[in-house]
């Protein structure tokens, strides 16, 4: 297992280009199942999760190759409708092959993804949505078995205890595009990744309106065609670099971004006192002099993203005063608290809240990554900490950040990957 060794205390400087969005690319790759024709997807990040999705597509019988950020996929010879446990259990997003497989074969067998370190993560909304499209769904032996004589459009309310669901919206969307008649999804997720998926499906010939709002209308079509598509930039990678720039008192420019996807993050950083300057597709981040504490509540888009909660906690941990973070999407997503405290932070978890008493400085320590965004938070903290931090289990970070150490190194960070078997 690789480790990252980071010597903190360097102010980051320079410019960094943001990669394609992991969370947009994964459902789009799953959507290639919906056509016999070749799809070419550009700006796909070179990540473990992406390669896992490609493996799943190949296991189903598709051809899928990745070359320099471009995936060429063809599902003409798809032969299997089963996504097995050994692959689905490794990545929750692989569950979003359920909708397209059902649309393609009128049946699908997909392993339950299981829980993960950030919480229970049920799939009831996926199942409820697909049932409303006239699918029979049973769960047995750890698998979801879906079957339908004919998928039919329906009226679906897709909200749960914690609001809308990104991947449930994606799953229902991908089944509904080939269902007979019209489907309305209410309380659909509004995340930009859902919009990117809908844009991809519309290029393929689907008739989807309202993506990006809580009400999506889908008129089913008989067939979809192969198309080319460029994946949107990764707003969470962008946000992670924004916090890295701010915590090191640096002066960096992030390029290749879509500003409006970053509004909640920009607003919070400005409240904290970070100086942000925008041009058309870039954003300069300069740390101000007197940073102020802030309260953050994670919410579905356009609210503050749960995937940026941990990285902001690192930043707030060295801002004088008391900050409170409330996690409304995954109330248990606080595995990074103990690790940040090992670096000298003063953070107390109280139910779904983290109370952060800002300290003057963090100090380097051996720490352990527990999940993707928590590991990003440890790297962000390490960049500002005095001395050396050793982040182990960095395979988590490789799931979601393309070339993170190279990109940080180019900004001046002292960071080194140690390969371990
Ligand atoms: C996606 C993102 C993930 C992000 C999350 C929330 C991908 C590949 N992953 O995950 O990075 O953290 O959105 O923005 O896009 N829920 C249910 N029942 C369900 C489904 C979800 O109760 O059937 C709950 C979840 O437990 C959670 C909330 O709904 O509390 C939102 O989860 P959801 O949007 O579904 O997350 P994912 O789509 O899995």
UniProtKB/TrEMBL annotation:
Signal peptide: none
Its EC number(s): 2.5.1.7
Modification sites for 2-(S-cysteinyl)pyruvic acid O-phosphothioketal: 116
Residues annotated as the enzyme's active site: 116 (proton donor)
Domain Enolpyruvate transferase per the UniProt entry, residue ranges: 7-408
Gene3D superfamilies tied to this protein: Enolpyruvate transferase domain (3.65.10.10)
A GO molecular function held by the record: UDP-N-acetylglucosamine 1-carboxyvinyltransferase activity
Designated name of the protein: UDP-N-acetylglucosamine 1-carboxyvinyltransferase
Chain's gene name: murA
């Amino acid at each position: 297992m690789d480790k990252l060794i980071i010597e903190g205390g360097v102010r980051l400087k320079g410019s960094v280009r943001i990669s394609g969005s992991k969370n947009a690319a994964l459902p789009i790759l799953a959507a290639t199942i919906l056509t016999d024709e070749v799809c070419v997807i550009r700006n796909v990040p070179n990540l473990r999760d992406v390669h896992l999705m490609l493996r799943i597509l190949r296991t189903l019988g598709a051809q899928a190759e990745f070359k320099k950020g471009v995936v060429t996929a063809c599902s003409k010879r798809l032969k299997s409708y089963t996504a097995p446990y050994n692959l689905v259990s490794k990545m929750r997003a692989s569950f979003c092959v359920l909708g397209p497989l059902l649309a393609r074969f009128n049946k699908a067998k997909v392993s339950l993804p299981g829980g993960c370190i950030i919480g229970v993560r049920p799939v009831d909304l996926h199942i409820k949505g697909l049932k409303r499209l006239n699918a029979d769904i049973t769960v047995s032996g750890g698998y979801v078995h879906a079957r339908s004589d004919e998928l039919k459009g329906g009226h679906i309310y897709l909200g749960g205890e914690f609001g809308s669901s990104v991947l449930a919206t994606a799953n229902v969307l991908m089944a509904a595009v080939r269902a007979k008649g019209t489907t309305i999804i209410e309380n659909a997720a509004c995340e930009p990744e859902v919009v990117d998926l809908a844009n991809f499906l519309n290029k393929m010939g689907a008739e989807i309106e309202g993506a990006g709002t809580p009400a999506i209308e889908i008129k089913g079509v008989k067939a979809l065609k192969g198309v080319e598509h460029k994946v949107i930039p990764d707003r969470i990678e962008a946000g992670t670099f924004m916090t890295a720039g701010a915590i090191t008192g640096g002066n960096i420019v992030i390029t290749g971004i879509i500003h409006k996807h970053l509004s909640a993050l920009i607003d919070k950083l400005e409240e904290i006192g970070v100086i942000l300057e925008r041009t058309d597709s870039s954003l300069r981040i300069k740390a101000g002099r007197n940073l102020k504490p802030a309260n953050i509540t994670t919410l579905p888009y356009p609210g503050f993203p749960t995937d940026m909660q941990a990285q902001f906690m690192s930043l707030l941990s060295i801002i004088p005063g008391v900050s409170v973070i409330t996690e409304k999407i995954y109330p248990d997503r606080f595995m990074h608290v103990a690790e940040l405290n090992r670096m000298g932070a003063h953070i107390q978890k109280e139910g779904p809240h983290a109370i952060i008493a800002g300290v003057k400085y963090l100090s380097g320590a051996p720490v352990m990554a527990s999940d993707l965004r928590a590991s990003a938070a440890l790297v962000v903290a390490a960049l500002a900490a005095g001395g050396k931090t050793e982040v182990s289990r960095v395979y988590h970070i490789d799931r979601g950040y393309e070339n993170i150490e190279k990109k940080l190194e180019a900004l001046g960070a002292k960071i080194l990957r140690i390969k371990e078997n």
